[in-house]
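Students often ask why we bother predicting the structure of a whole assembly rather than each chain alone. The short answer is interfaces. A chain on its own may look different once its partners are present, and contacts between molecules only exist in the joint model. In this exercise we take two input lines together and write out one structure for the complete complex. Read the inputs first and try to guess which parts will touch.
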Amino acid sequence: MDVVERSGDEDNSCDAGLVFIGRIHTPWRDRSSCPRNASESEATARIVLEAPYRPGLGSLDTISHVILLYWLHQARRDIVEIVPPTDTRAHGVFATRAPVRPNPIGLSVSQIVSVHADGLTVTGIDCLDGTPLLDIKPYFASVDAKPEARVGWYETRPNPLPPRG
Amino acid sequence: MDVVERSGDEDNSCDAGLVFIGRIHTPWRDRSSCPRNASESEATARIVLEAPYRPGLGSLDTISHVILLYWLHQARRDIVEIVPPTDTRAHGVFATRAPVRPNPIGLSVSQIVSVHADGLTVTGIDCLDGTPLLDIKPYFASVDAKPEARVGWYETRPNPLPPRG
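Now the answer. The structure tokens for the assembled complex follow.
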């Protein structure tokens, strides 16, 4: 991925702290083996929560899809413009799903396969094995489903690779 | 909101740090005036990014909807089960969109009204005025739109208030 660095204006302090509530176990051990997009893979991921958070799983067995937030711990944070592999033009990071971003929080809409005492099994996630989990949210179609949404730069890209999830 | 506290197993250390990349300006100055759900309001929100992140806005003018991630800075983090206002039963926080959660990251799917040199104007967000912004992601209908998604506990709730966004 070509990058345009914009550094120098930030220091290393942080404004808020995250806790890792669990880990996501996937078949992918390095970036090169990851699917470009969750929709490319039928693989399941096994999410294991740390013990204090397991009571938070209650009622997930009534839910079909969740939004998973996770920490892209290998991603650079000092990049604001990139040339994604799907294109030859530079775009702002906030117009892309690239893992490099000021706060490298990954997001996947995933289907629940099964709920366990210590976590859940899902499809539709393409992150590295061992990725730290930040949050699980129920997906409400009434507010989260926007099938009419458009991403113009992506629709006119010269290189028709799918986006990263 | 009734809460079931589960504390004592965690210390105050954090595993990763967030930077606030901007602020979200909304009409709502306190929790009681916030709409319960973004779909209840036609109000617009004005997002202003800190200067170093503004080049990241490039190409957002070609995009219709974004996923906004923000920091719910007033939310408690020591709660794993709650009785939401929409129900009389306790549920795990990960089955709800309540702001109280171990990592209080808020998420809204918002429609872009306009893109400015320093940020953007959107509809479909219900957070407090001044909420810190963490990330902006383009919404890809191909991977993010799941109109068939179901939230069983919510569909059978006794008190038919809408969910929080």
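Check your guess against this: Confidence is low (pLDDT under 50) at residues 6-11 of chain A.
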